[in-house]
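Incident review: delayed structure delivery

Summary: a single-chain prediction request sat in the queue longer than the usual turnaround. Root cause was a stuck worker, restarted by the on-call engineer. No data loss occurred. The affected request and its eventual output are reproduced below so the record is complete for anyone auditing the incident later.

Affected input:
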Amino acid sequence: MATAITSTVTFKNINKLAIPAIIAGIAEPLISLADVAIVGNVSYDSVSAQAAVGIVGSFLSALIWILAQTKTAISAFVSQSYGGKRLHSIKTLVPQLLLFNLLLSLFLYITTSLVATYIFEAYNASGKILEYSVSYYRIRALGFPLTLITFAIFGVFRGLQNTYWAMKCSLTGAAINISFNFLLVYGIDGWFEGLHIIGAAYASLLAQLSMFLMALWFYIKKTPFRFKVKRKINPKMKDLLIMSGNLFIRTASLNLAIYMANAYATDYGKNFIAAQSILMNIWLFFSFFIDGYANAGNAMGGRLLGEKKYLDLWRLSKKISLYAIVIALGLGLICVLLYSQIGLLFNKDADVLEIFKDVFWIVLLMQPINALAFIYDGIFKGLGEAKYLRNLLLVATFGGFMPTLLIADHFGFQLYAVWMAFGVWMILRSFTLVFKFRKKYLAQAV
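Output delivered after worker restart:
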């Protein structure tokens, strides 16, 4: 038994999955960030164009974040089948899921394109901003089906204990997006005029297409799965869709907490929402690093469950939690040493920076707790515990986050109220998951 633990749950094996996942996680948001930065420097209507890109990016991110949960579901099924040497049982399931994603994403693209004006009016867009938002969305969202299928294929890769292929696809997509953004937005003197915001939309579409084609190549050449869809529905499809549905609800409640935080910060005034934007971006930046180890826990946890190696699973949870906490503390220490300078990277306004510095310490204090929550969240996804994660997020959001926010806001804590609510939210998520894991899986290991 000791030999098995040493050979499967090691620093090298964990990082072989985690590091490519971290790089891929950072590369994907660069596509939206590149659009925002490059469009913000066009020679005319830069403010309206940048606002449109930001609005569309927010809507697409929320939509993709929720619907891409099929990636997590298929990863859990593949990793457990891989560990149990039962990949043959899901050979028809994978192409059926890819077809389901394609049909769902095409339906959503058509419907949202038809009502795009109403969608972005709900974001308070009007005039030129609304016009830019609609035209930009209708082109960029053509890549929506490509993105959902690509993410589902990434879930297959992760289930097969490989995050390197997804990393290569994501890095290539980010490089193509940035290169074509400059070319299509600004144009080339004497050759052709830039396409303004439309150029950014086409650059993003090319990036999504490149990631899709690379993912297809790896899928065909490196995996045992194909695209032949059989009429008989795989018996596991129902369980996979139920798991995906539970993860949809979980992610929707997570998005609700973030939306409420931003809504309350906006009510406090423009300086508060500016400071909140900085704090949230730093919080998300930390999560990209930790999420790489959560992805490793997802893939390895599912495999070990399939192999019924419960003691290895327990060792994995301890090791991967330790690595994540060390990273969180390391990043936190860097932020403490550069406490004042970090805010200046985002904003030069003295009032905004004062609010930022007053609250930033709470964000840093939360990071080790966040690390535990993210890691066990990833492991539980790999174990197929989607229903439990759904219920926990609903309880944490409506029983922890919301009451804390309302009470603290009532007493005038303003932005402190927002981050106190996040603190309670993350404590409920992290320690509940640790307790549940110890109770269920440590008992089986012993």
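Verification: The radius of gyration is 22 Å.
Action items: add queue-age alerting; document worker restart procedure.
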